[in-house]
Specification:
There is one protein chain. Helices cover 37% and strands 28% of the residues. The protein has a 6-stranded antiparallel beta barrel. Strand 16 (383-388) and strand 17 form a beta hairpin. The N and C termini lie far apart (101 Å). The chain has 465 residues and is α+β, with helices and mostly antiparallel strands. It is elongated, with a radius of gyration of 43 Å.
Length: 465
């Protein structure tokens, strides 16, 4: 009876072993299918470092690739989405992989221990790994080292069966990786052209040269804005503070309408003081004139007192004119263009500071800021197309009428040439303030000059030639 349990368990061990083998084989085949159906290198790398854990247990997997000069490049790390090339662990790992690449067993799957690395890297081994690692190369069909896997785990040995299984799946990884690299190197939208024969190569090169010497119209893109044509700039006539704005932004005004008012407290007080001073000077002059009838010596003071009266009258006239300028009126019909009224109320202004722009809504033009790097040879009368942001599919035609010879600082803080263009035969002009992109056309040049204009310019600035 004591032997009964043993008799019942022994038949189950081969069955369990077969189940484990079947599961490993199914996992192997599924992994192979996944990597062969990966549609990108990024997807392939993710599967290799993360899904291989279903076949072999590990704590971390690192996928690397051999570059020119036998330098390893880390492509993916399990559980890490973005690899920081400046991280200390990455630098240390690259040193380990470089030293292993130069070893005689680089093309074989083997265990790497702490004693197998250089002395300068041994001191950090326990900090980063702490146990033996597994080196698994990815070899091509010709036996060339294409890349590899670096696996680490805490505790336990790497069994020969695990190494053999990993070596088998590595063949599938290498084949899939090579296929993806070849596919990515080939342009997806260009047809495959077989140029094995000499005449075909010559014909293709000749066609390319002919295309490069085709004449095309030179053009440049520039930020554009609809601005008023011949606007009237309303500025502050005095130094002071704006007390009230009498119109709303973008509202229609008539000639003579009150636009804004300045605070008149200081000027009004100066005017009142000037009037009193003029009255005092006039009284002193009259008193001296009456006294001169009986006192001959008082006649000598009349000229000076008369001059003082004239000075005080001039002060009254001057402060009166300033007081009349406190209220600013519109000099023409149009729309008042400015920011919100609350931005101006209480704001100090100086003489000549722009406050409001009066524009005719039926007279607008295009203002373009052409960056100095994109500048081309432009002449008055050049064709301009405006693509408004609100309707980019229907460009508006225009003609260049004004160009600046010196670059200016744009509102965005960049250096650019200011261009002005008028509209050509448009039924309804766009409103002031709309933005878009303008395309300016220049003279005809060869296609090769058009394509290499900016690279040559950048090269000349870099070399100074």
């Amino acid at each position: 009876m004591a032997q009964a349990p043993t008799t019942q368990e022994s038949p189950q061990k081969p069955a369990e072993t077969d189940d484990r083998k079947s599961l490993a084989l199914a996992t192997f085949l599924q992994l192979e299918r996944q990597v062969r159906h990966a549609n990108s290198t990024e997807r392939f790398c993710f599967i290799v470092v993360n899904e291989t854990h279903r076949l072999i247990r590990y704590d971390q997997a690192v996928l690397w690739k051999v570059l020119t000069g036998d330098k390893p490049e880390i492509k993916a790390i399990s559980g890490v989405s973005v690899i920081s090339q400046e991280a200390p662990y990455i630098h240390w790992l690259e040193n380990i992989l470089t030293s292993q690449l130069s070893g005689s067993s680089a093309g074989q799957c083997h265990v790497v221990s702490r004693t197998d690395v250089a002395g300068s890297d041994q001191k950090d081994w326990n900090e980063w790994i702490g146990s033996d690692a597994l080196w698994c190369p990815l070899l091509t069909a010709q036996g060339t080292l294409y890349g590899g896997l670096w696996l680490t785990r805490s505790g336990g040995e790497w069994h020969s069966s695990e190494q053999a299984l990993l070596g088998r799946i590595a063949d599938a990884y290498t084949h899939a990786w090579q296929a993806l690299d070849i596919q990515s190197a080939r342009s997806p939208w260009l047809p495959r052209i077989h140029l094995k024969s000499g005449p075909r190569r010559v014909a293709l090169l000749t066609a390319l040269l002919l295309v490069l010497f085709l004449p095309v119209r030179e053009s440049a893109l520039a930020p554009a804005e609809i601005v008023p044509l011949d606007p009237v700039i309303v500025t502050s006539p005095l130094d002071g503070v704006i007390s009230e704005i009498h119109v709303q932004p973008n509202s229609t005004v008539r000639k003579g309408d009150l636009l804004f008012s300045l605070d008149d407290t200081t000027i009004r007080n100066q005017y009142q003081v000037a009037i009193k001073s003029a009255e005092v000077a006039q009284a002193e002059y009259l008193r001296a004139a009456q006294k001169a009838f009986s006192d001959e010596s008082s006649k000598s003071d009349l000229a000076m007192l008369r001059a003082q009266v004239e000075v005080k009258d001039a002060e009254v006239h001057y402060t009166g004119e300033l007081l009349d300028k406190v209220d600013v009126h519109a000099g023409r019909d149009g729309i008042a263009i400015f920011t919100a009224a609350n931005d101006w109320i209480g704001k100090p202004v100086v003489v000549g500071e722009k406050v409001i722009t009066l524009a005719d809504p039926d007279q607008t033009e295009i203002q373009l800021w052409l960056p100095i790097d994109d500048a081309i040879n432009l002449e008055t009368g050049a064709e301009v197309k405006l693509f408004l942001n609100i309707d980019p599919t229907h460009p508006l035609a225009g003609t260049l009428r004004q160009t600046s010879y010196e670059p200016q600082v744009t509102p965005a803080g960049n250096l650019a040439f200011q261009l002005k263009a008028g509209f050509d035969h448009i039924d309804k002009l766009p409103r002031v303030g709309l933005n878009g992109t303008g395309k300016i056309y220049g003279k005809r040049v060869l296609l090769i000059n058009y394509l290499l204009r900016r690279p040559i310019s950048a090269l000349r600035r870099f070399t100074g030639l």
